[in-house]
Amino acid sequence: IWLGAWDPSVMLGASANLPRAVLMELLLLPAELLFCDRALPLGDVRLWQIASNTLHQACVLVFSFLLSDASSGTESLCLHVLAQWLRALRLSFQWLPSGNEREPLRALGNYASRLASFTEVAPAEAAEVAQQLARWVRCDTELVPVLRPMLDRLLPLAASP
Questions:
Q1: Which residues fall within 8 angstroms of residue 26, CB to CB, at 6 or more apart?
Q2: Are 67 and 115 in contact (CB under 8 A)?
């Protein structure tokens, strides 16, 4: 990821025979490593920018994989990985001065109905995703179609005993 050479399509295409849970863990690594002090070349701004850009370029494919029809039975893990990706994407904009903060949210918007259905199956992990989404600023137009259906499903659950 630090060299800009990480590409999830290689992993997802070549490793399609790996169990889905293993692929999820492999997708989780870049998002966790991007802001891990032990894995990060702290003094090299150029490497931060390359890694951040790599993450942004990969998010469309990652969102597609996480929220695909094949995710049945792994919704909670998918939502956990998604929350970590949203966190890393949001934080990485400090290293991408010309980055468009709305693009990842627009990509996620393509899966709003799928995300809403995952929310019903795994509400705790969906709350984690909703929390990450709520931290994005200046993106209300892109957030509302994704976040509102999730909150509509989560808030009645919070009121029930």
A1: 11, 15, 18
A2: yes
Tokens of 134: 């709520």
- In tens, the pLDDT along 76-113 reads 999 999 999 999 999 988 888 777 889 999 999 999 99
d(CA 115, CA 104): 14
Is residue 26 classed exposed, middle or buried when 0-12, 13-18 and 19+ CB atoms within 10 A define those classes? middle
Region 14-31: mean pLDDT is 80
d(CA 122, CA 50): 33
Question: Do 118 and 145 contact (CB within 8 A), yes or no?
Answer: no
Q: Please provide the DSSP assignment of 83-135 as one string.
A: HHHHHHHHHHGGG-TT--THHHHHHHHTTHHHHHHHHHH-HHHHHHHHHHHHT
Between 98 and 74, where is the model more confident?
74
What's 66's DSSP letter?
Answer: H
Q: Which residues contact 121 (CB under 8 A, 6 or more apart)?
A: 75, 76
